[in-house]
């Protein structure tokens, strides 16, 4: 601790340079904080809860649909308690940028998700209306929809039989989720698969995926294999996986965020390495006589090495933590601007941990070579300016 | 008086490419505890090199250097650093203070390596700054101080951990006559009233007069030991 003044003094030696370096570190970690939070949100699929649900989808691609006829065969697989199904609709409301997930669902869908809190009377009203829809509270609030309103959903993939893209749906109820981490799911709209199946021009008797509730999760592997065996060697082979795994692959359909984040951040951190590496090399070069004096006073070679390393790590930590704190502040706005794709209220712990590890790593790497130079410094030569 | 510094057959050779420069050619020297020794000689005669070897900043090519019973030529790098911290104080021509630290923090530097607690370090620094007459400038940075004041901060830094030996390489070389006299008075007080053993390199015969005796170095050899008041007309080659 007592050496902190010494490290501080070194950083304050050239204030302008330190501030400029801090700013670039700050900018890099601001970006990292945002992007990596998005990556974590995407990959967690919103759900980390221990549900006893499996999702059955096409082995080829999530966008590939499955025959409705598979339902009864899945239902009769041992270990399966209940089965429902859903089909992606991909409609838009007014504008492409108002993106939110919307899909049609079979009967019993809401029973499958007891964590979706909804008034039973609303469920009843929905079931009684062929063109009825249910949305999450966040979505209803966002567009100011009230129960009884007609939502003019526009098809992008599935037109009506008459060729029109208009799918007017009547709002019959709203649900909410207590788990703050899953608030993103409140951006969904669901309507009846029966209506979708009868009214759309292209597909008939097809569902997007089945959701299977098990008697117990311990049987998951066996049941998943049994279900996939049902369609083996057919034109519609299935892949049965846990809900979380499914959500991840579903998100990847839009973008492999992990890959994008890694790509962007590699470029950013590479630049940062060069920049701070150069700064550190320069500050040590300028401080050669001062470092020699420290050695004269009895600082060992190792102590001087540690001082320079600490200085480098501190510089990156300062800028980095500041950048991530700013990212933390703007994340809610960022999240709501994403239209529910990213549901985040703050930087996840995982991102903080990775960020701090990166800061320390970058600090050590950029400090390594100047620190070695400081360590090897010959007192007599340095004092004589040789 | 017992001998504090004992030097026997000390040599130092620098290699510059294929060329060998023999800077010190077998120095024998004894310095008693409480002595104040001036070292004079032409530029390049090896004065700084001699001081560096006595202060453990550099390793000799051959011979022995013993300070306060410790053969410092036999110490390893890390041990030598620790030894310097406890036993020698250095004062340089250009002060060599940390430009971003206040006078107080500069003087505290050697104490950071000791086990002293923060409050004790502060007290020692205060007392030392008082001793060099800079108590009122403790929060000033080097660029807010005159050359003479900066050198007094440097002296405070050199004596704050109460070293056995004070090594000064042209401490007045960069100062005007008046400031130089103040510094020399200060060194004399440290020597006479506080019992510090001082070795000082200088080009200024007036500065050397403050010392108890003057050594003359020429081409890496000691020419004569003179006690105060003696005068050298010519190098005593036979010595
Ligand atoms: N590290 C080194 N490498 C090569 N030559 C050196 C080195 N250090 C000192 N020398 C040479 O050794 C000789 C003595 O140097 P030193 O600094 O001891 O002289 P000095 O008496 O202190 O001179 P000055 O009065 O100019 O300070 C000089 O010729 C110098 O160039
Ligand atoms: Mg010299």
TrEMBL record, chain A:
Q: Where are the transmembrane segments?
A: 257-277, 304-331, 351-368
Location of the protein in the cell: Cell membrane
| Keywords of the record | Cell membrane, Membrane, Transmembrane, Transmembrane helix
Membrane topology field = Multi-pass membrane protein
Where is the ABC3 transporter permease C-terminal domain positioned along the sequence? 265-379
Which Pfam families does UniProt cross-reference here?
FtsX
* PANTHER family assigned: ABC TRANSPORTER PERMEASE, ABC TRANSPORTER, MEMBRANE PROTEIN
| Name the UniProt record assigns to this protein | ABC transporter permease
Task: Say which species the protein is native to.
Answer: Microbulbifer halophilus
Automatic annotation (TrEMBL), chain B:
Residues forming the ABC transporter domain are: 5-239
Q: PROSITE patterns, alphabetically?
A: ABC_TRANSPORTER_1, ABC_TRANSPORTER_2
Q: Please give the superkingdom of this protein's source.
A: Bacteria
Question: Lyase as a keyword?
Answer: no
SUPFAM superfamilies associated with the record: P-loop containing nucleoside triphosphate hydrolases
Q: Which SMART domains match?
A: AAA
Annotated Gene Ontology MF terms? ATP binding
Pfam families, per database record = ABC_tran
Keywords in alphabetical order: ATP-binding, Nucleotide-binding, Transport
What PANTHER family does the record point to?
ABC TRANSPORTER ATP-BINDING PROTEIN (PTHR24220:SF452), IMPORT ATP-BINDING PROTEIN (PTHR24220)
Under which name does UniProt file this protein? ABC transporter ATP-binding protein
Lineage here is: Bacteria, Pseudomonadati, Pseudomonadota, Gammaproteobacteria, Cellvibrionales
């Amino acid at each position: 601790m007592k050496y902190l003044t010494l490290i501080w003094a070194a950083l304050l030696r050239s204030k302008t340079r330190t501030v400029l370096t801090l700013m670039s570190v700050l900018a890099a970690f601001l970006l990292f904080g945002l992007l990596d939070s998005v990556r974590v949100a995407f990959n967690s699929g919103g759900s980390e809860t221990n549900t006893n649900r499996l999702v059955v989808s096409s082995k080829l691609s999530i966008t590939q649909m499955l025959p409705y006829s598979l339902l009864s065969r899945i239902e009769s697989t041992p270990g399966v308690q209940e089965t429902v199904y859903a089909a992606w609709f991909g409609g838009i409301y007014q504008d492409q940028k108002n993106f939110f997930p919307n899909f049609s669902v079979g009967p019993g869908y809401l029973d499958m998700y007891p964590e979706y809190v909804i008034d039973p009377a609303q469920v009843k009203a929905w079931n009684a209306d062929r063109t009825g829809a249910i949305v999450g509270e966040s979505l209803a609030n966002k567009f100011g929809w009230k129960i009884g309103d007609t939502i003019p959903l526009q098809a992008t993939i599935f037109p009506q039989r008459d060729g029109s893209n208009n799918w007017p749906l009547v709002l019959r109820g709203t649900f909410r989720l207590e788990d703050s981490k899953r608030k993103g799911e409140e951006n969904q709209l669901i309507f009846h698969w029966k209506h979708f199946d009868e009214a759309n021009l292209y597909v008939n008797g097809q569902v997007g995926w089945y959701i299977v509730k098990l008697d117990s999760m311990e049987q998951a592997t066996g049941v998943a294999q049994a279900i996939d065996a049902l369609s083996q060697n057919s034109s519609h082979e299935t892949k049965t996986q846990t809900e979380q795994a499914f959500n991840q692959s579903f998100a990847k359909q839009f973008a492999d965020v992990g890959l994008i984040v890694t790509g962007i951040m590699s470029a950013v951190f590479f630049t940062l390495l060069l920049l701070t590496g150069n700064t550190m090399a320069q500050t040590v070069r300028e401080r050669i006589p001062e470092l020699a004096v420290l050695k004269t006073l009895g600082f060992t070679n190792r102590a001087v090495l540690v001082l320079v390393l600490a200085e480098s790590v501190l510089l990156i930590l300062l800028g980095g933590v500041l950048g991530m704190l700013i990212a933390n502040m703007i994340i809610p706005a960022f999240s709501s601007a994403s239209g529910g794709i990213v549901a985040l209220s703050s930087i996840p712990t995982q991102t903080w941990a990775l960020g701090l590890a990166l800061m320390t790593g970058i600090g050590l790497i950029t400090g390594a070579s100047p620190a070695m130079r400081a360590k090897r410094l010959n007192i007599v030569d340095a004092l004589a300016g040789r | 008086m017992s001998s504090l510094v004992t030097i026997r057959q000390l040599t130092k050779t620098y290699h510059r490419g294929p060329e060998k420069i023999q800077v010190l050619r077998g120095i024998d020297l004894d310095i008693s505890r409480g002595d104040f020794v001036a070292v004079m000689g032409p530029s390049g005669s090896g004065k700084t090199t001699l001081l560096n070897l006595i202060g453990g900043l550099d390793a000799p090519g051959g011979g022995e250097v013993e300070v306060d019973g410790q053969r410092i030529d036999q110490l390893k790098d890390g041990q030598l650093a620790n030894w310097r911290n406890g036993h020698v104080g250095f004062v340089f021509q250009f002060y060599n203070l940390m430009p971003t630290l206040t006078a107080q923090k500069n003087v505290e530097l050697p104490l950071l390596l000791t086990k002293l607690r923060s409050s004790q370090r502060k007290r020692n620094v205060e007392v030392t700054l008082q001793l060099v007459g800079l108590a009122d400038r403790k929060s000033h940075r080097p660029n807010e101080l005159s050359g003479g004041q900066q050198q007094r901060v440097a002296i405070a830094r050199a004596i704050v951990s109460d070293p056995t030996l004070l090594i000064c390489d042209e401490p007045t070389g960069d100062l005007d006559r008046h400031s130089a006299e103040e510094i020399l008075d200060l060194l004399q007080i440290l020597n006479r009233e506080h019992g510090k053993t001082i070795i000082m390199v200088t080009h200024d015969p007036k500065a050397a007069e403050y010392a108890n005796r003057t050594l003359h170095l020429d081409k890496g050899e000691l020419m004569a030991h003179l006690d105060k008041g003696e005068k050298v007309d010519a190098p005593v080659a036979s010595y």
